[in-house]
Amino acid sequence: MAGDLQRGGFARTFGMLLLRWRIQAYMDLMWMTRDAKLCLINVVSDVILNLLGVMAVFLLAERFDGIGVSTREQTIFMLGYAALVRGILVAGFGYNILQISRRVGRGQMDHVLIQPQPIWMILLTEGFMPFSGCLSLFTGIGITAWSLTQLSIPFVAGWGFWFFGHLVASTTIVLAISFFWGSLAFWSPVGAEEISSQATRLIFQLKSFPLDGLGPLLQNVLLTVLPVGFVAWYPSQTLMGIGDHSLWMTPFVAILVSLLAFVAFKKGLKHYEQTGSQRYVGWAHRS
Questions:
Q1: Cys-Cys link to 236, which of 67, 81, 156, 243 (CB 3.0-4.6 A)?
Q2: 87 with 136: CB under 8 angstroms?
Q3: Residue 226 carries which DSSP code?
Q4: How far apart are CA 35 and CA 32, in angstroms?
Q5: Helix H segments across the chain?
Q6: pLDDT tens profile 125-160
Q7: How far apart are CA 149 and CA 105, in angstroms?
Q8: b/e 10-21 (16+ beta carbons within 10 angstroms → b)
């Protein structure tokens, strides 16, 4: 009996997730197709920006036939992996979820707290933008697929599982960093409103660069203090069998950073429950 209730609760929760994702997808489609001219501009600009994001490293790899210990094809695989991570984040966590400090700093957490849904479900589904954000994802899929045709990776049993597992872990690391630093906006809504944006922008700018040629000190900093290396470089090296890397390291770092972000965000919410938004005055205008 308890098992049936548990399965029923899981089915209802999963059904609610699917419903919310469907609603968000429909709203995103309506926004994307509301005007043919704006739709075309969005498509063209997204394609250009996504290609420019990987072009610098691609040209270096093409000129020198690789970077560090990675060949040109291996570097392109890393670029495709990095673009996939960014595509998942853009398509799945837009609308100020990835930049969570904006929502906190602008007093918009009230909009989340009054909804009759768990906070985790709202944050997981409200930023779903599969149509306006799909071009970033398609760019990553295209680059990764092309690089795999050029590489001789031994596709042993489970390689696909590890590939998607590392993608989830890398995506989680970026989200966790955003939520960790974004928690400061609970205490300083004006000063920290854009801190998540700056943190993710720094990660997106550095994620496509190989860390092979860096000194041990700087490399360790980019794998610990600011774990940019686990967004693309380390997992792609692991998946290609380059170096002595552990398959479990990227998922382990994702769990560790997520726990830190959870604790920080939980403490921020408790503070928010006591103080409320500091960005609104008595007549509801933003200060």
A1: 81
A2: yes
A3: S
A4: 7
A5: 2-32, 36-64, 72-92, 100-105, 109-113, 119-125, 134-150, 159-182, 195-206, 216-221, 233-240, 249-275
A6: 998 998 888 888 888 888 888 888 888 776 666 888
A7: 46
A8: eeeeeeeeeebb
What does each C-alpha distance from 131 to 35, 53, 88, 169 come to in angstroms? 14, 20, 12, 23
Q: How far apart are CA 185 and CA 167, in angstroms?
A: 28
Which of 175, 166, 169, 171 lies closest to 265, judged by CA?
175
- The letter for the amino acid at 199 is A
* Rounded CA separation 81/148 (Å): 11
pLDDT digits (tens, 9 = 90+) for 68-98: 777 888 888 988 899 899 999 999 998 889 9
The percent of residues in the chain predicted with pLDDT above 90, rounded, is 34
Count, residues in the chain: 287
Residue type, 2: A
Residue 287 and residue 285: Cα distance in Å, rounded?
6
Handedness of CA 185, 190, 194, 199 (dihedral sign): negative
C-alpha 250: how far from its chain's center?
14
